[in-house]
Specification:
With 757 residues, this protein is of the alpha+beta class. The chain contains 29 helices and 28 strands. A hairpin with a 2-residue loop joins strand 9 and strand 10. The protein starts with 12 loop residues before the first strand and ends with a helix.
Length: 757
């Protein structure tokens, strides 16, 4: 330890006072686990203790006194209090990784980061700490704060705006763009960047332009965005492109490069927001609050415009760096040919939507409300008083106090606390003990969710259900969805079967759904190499009945409906190493019975456990898995069972996703005459939903043959080739559909099915 002034207690500091880097903690780290985490992070960041002077002090006056004695220009704060003391800023988490000049010690640089103790609960935080320490090490090599100089034109004239856009158009420059809208969902401004340092913000603010000038601007904007030879770069471009289509009838064309989706390919476990990406890939300090006009309606226009332009330049810079990451750590070709090509079909579905029978929906809503009232009355009678099923306090009082049941608890992962619970899992358990009240509570909650989430849904003025798709919503490539940008519609992936009844084909058309039924189970069969599973798939046996026959050691003909049902739950749950306790809870059975079923299942399919072992061996090399299509994923979370279970599920799921996504892309871009009448309606899990003219049966048959060809592609895993069959469904609404197997499809059968609709 170097020289420390006598007036400073040694317990408050560690290391050389002349070290080039200062680390500030609220107090001394006494927990050996936390100290080990810090040491590991320092090591990976290529820092040693001798490089650092560590201060353990939260009192501002004492902290100031100690820092006055050090010469280091770079300070890393591991606590919000010290960060605020040194910078005057709040929100260390959102500002972590950024370099700020100290207000207490002008000329010194301050970087906030996460305390190592927080990474015990959230392992991935360690990577944030390492990234921030690496930046701190680099900053400690020089004095002063270096910022990328960004030239932002934020109050342009008409001539400047048109000239900037004309330059992009004439020179075919790759361009990053970003729009901002107001509370009325009107365009407030749009920014274009031709490099990480050069951008223009074109305002559409009150009367900034005359009507004629605004027409000229939008014409020039459209000329750029609709030019197929110009590459478009952006963050969450699905929002911007959808907005421009709906509000301005501008269809963005040409190559798309989305930084949010790129981040999902390279680091799917990490945040994908622009604020986080800036902290990793740019030297721009946190600025997102500057542009949150919905949080600060009094924000001045120039600040808002500067924010918009900065978004465009930072996104451009992030893309250039993420593009290199994609080429080294992921499959760049797959990112372009699959994820970016999905924009076309997804945007079409978002815009077109699906017709909703509002009259039938309203009638159902009345029946649901009546059922809620009926069940609530029955519940009140059983309880001897009115019970609010949404009140945890009232439910706890009734079951845990009045009835004297042993309380069920739930752990809060955020703060690692345990509390009483009457959630649906607790109600399941209590219902198994014979309490009808718990079953009624579950029923009422489910009906209220149906009513509140779906039956009270806000639809667009044309009575069509729409959603917004997110290509980066999952780690395996599967799409997620949510309400539209106009806060109508719903998550298309989670629409319950009962609601699908109201989603109807347009007049003179039918709905057709192509679905990969039991796709993941089939993929597991070949990926695992289990002989019994492969036999089920290759012979197209009833998977649940055959599983039951293997589990209970009897002929398929002798399997009872109850045994088949038990096997079905096992097929849906146990391939990814679900434990017997989780199985018991999910499928409403005893832990003893669940333990027995888990054992029987893995005895029936021993190849699954062997595959799990091979997967762990592959992970042990570099934590990376690659699927059939070349999509890769690094599993960066804490080494152990949770990571393994996630890994087991990733390869089958991502393989199936790849099949469906690529089929959707081929269908959308096909120029076949038989596919021309198709209007895509949705992509849900492993299925594609579309609409087709009812009378063109022969043409539909030809279309189905072509699409099934896209979906039934042979997949080779570990030397085994297989095809996942496609189930065809046809109907006038999305629920009541007639099913056909792909190998039994014919014009005659199709005609017969459609005639009976």
């Amino acid at each position: 330890m170097g020289f420390i002034p006598a007036e400073i207690p040694r317990a408050k500091t560690e290391g050389r006072i002349d070290a080039p880097l200062v680390l500030v903690f609220d107090s001394e780290i006494t927990n050996s686990v936390v100290r080990n985490i810090l040491d590991q992070c320092l090591h990976i960041a290529q820092l040693i203790k001798n490089d650092c002077f560590i201060i353990n002090e939260s009192n501002p006056a004492s902290l100031k006194q100690i820092l006055e004695t050090v010469s280091a220009t770079t300070i890393v704060c591991f606590s919000a209090d010290s960060f605020h003391t040194l910078t005057g800023l709040n929100g260390i988490f959102k500002r972590r990784g950024s370099v700020y000049e100290s207000t207490l010690f002008p000329g010194k640089k301050v970087i906030g980061t996460i305390h190592p103790e927080d990474s015990i609960k959230k392992y991935l935080y360690r990577y944030y700490i390492i990234s921030d320490l690496r930046r701190a090490k680099a900053e400690s090599a020089f004095s002063g704060i270096r910022r990328t100089e960004r030239h932002l034109l934020i109050r342009p004239t008409l001539e400047q705006s048109l000239a900037y856009l004309a330059k992009i158009k004439a020179e075919k420059l790759p361009v990053s763009f970003d729009i901002e809208c107001n509370g009325a969902l009107e365009t407030s401004c749009i920014a274009f960047a031709i490099s990480p340092t050069d951008a223009i913000c074109i305002p559409f603010y009150k009367s900034y332009w005359s009507e004629f000038e605004e027409i000229q601007i939008w014409k020039a904007v459209a000329d750029v965005l609709e030019d197929e030879s110009i590459t478009k770069i952006g963050q969450n471009l699905m929002f911007d492109i959808s907005f421009l289509i709906m509000q301005n009838s501008i269809i963005t064309k040409g190559p798309i490069r989305d930084t949010m989706i790129a981040q999902n390919h390279v680091y799917p476990d990490f945040p994908k927001g622009l604020d986080f990406l800036c902290s990793i890939y740019t030297d721009e300090p946190y600025y997102k609050d500057e542009g949150k006009i919905w949080k600060n309606p009094n924000i001045d226009a120039e600040t808002f415009w500067r924010y918009n332009a900065k978004d465009a330049t930072c996104t451009y810079e992030i893309w250039l760096k993420l593009e290199k990451e994609l080429q080294v750590k992921a499959n760049y070709k797959l990112f372009i040919e699959e994820s970016m090509e999905l924009f076309g079909p997804l945007l079409f579905m978002q815009i077109d939507g699906i017709q909703v029978n509002r009259e039938k929906l309203e009638q159902t809503k009345l029946r649901v409300l009546a059922s809620i009232d009926e069940k609530q009355a029955e519940l009140n009678k059983l309880c001897g008083r009115e019970l609010n099923v949404s009140s945890s306090k009232q439910c706890q009082q009734y079951f845990y106090v009045d009835k004297g049941l042993e309380p069920y608890t739930k752990r809060n992962k955020k703060n690692d606390t345990v509390s009483l619970t009457t959630d649906d899992n607790a109600m399941k358990r209590i219902a198994r003990k014979g309490y009808k009240e718990a079953s009624l509570i579950q029923d009422i909650r489910a009906l209220r969710k149906l009513e509140g989430t779906y039956l009270d849904m806000t639809f667009d003025a044309d009575n069509r259900l729409r959603c917004s798709y997110n290509i980066a919503g999952t780690t395996n490539g599967r799409l997620s969805s949510s309400q539209t940008i106009f806060e109508t519609g719903a998550n298309f992936q989670n629409i319950p079967l009962d609601f699908r009844e109201f989603c109807e084909a347009d007049p003179d058309t039918i709905l057709v759904e192509l679905d990969k039924v039991q796709a993941e189970w089939i993929a597991v069969a070949y990926i695992s190499g289990d002989a019994n599973m492969i036999e089920v798939v290759s012979k197209r046996l009833d998977a649940h009945k055959r599983t039951a026959s293997l589990m209970f050691r009897k002929d398929m003909a002798d399997v009872s409906p109850e045994e088949r049902q038990r096997a079905k739950t096992c097929n849906h749950s146990l391939n990814y190493d679900m434990g017997y306790k989780s199985y018991a809870l999910q499928y409403d059975t005893t832990e003893k019975e669940a333990k027995g079923l888990v054992t029987l299942y893995h005895n029936a399919y021993p190849g699954i456990r062997l595959w799990h072992g091979r997967t762990r061996d592959r992970l042990s090399k570099d934590r990376t898995l690659t699927n059939y299509f070349g999509r890769t994923r690094r599993f960066l979370d804490r080494w152990g069972d949770n990571l393994f279970k996630s890994a087991y599920g990733w390869e089958p799921a991502s393989t199936v996703v790849g099949i469906v996504n690529q089929a959707l892309i081929k269908l959308y871009h096909s120029e076949s005459n038989c596919l021309a009448p198709i209007r895509l309606k949705g992509q849900v899990h492993d299925s594609i939903l579309f609409q087709y003219p009812r009378k063109e049966v022969v043409r539909l048959y030809e279309a189905l043959q072509e699409i099934i060809g896209y979906m039934n592609i042979p997949i080779t895993c570990y030397g085994r080739t297989f095809v996942i069959p496609t189930e065809i469904k046809v109907g006038l609404n999305w629920r009541d559909m007639v099913k056909m197997k792909d190998d039994e499809l014919s014009v005659e059968k199709l005609e017969d099915v459609i005639a009976k609709l």
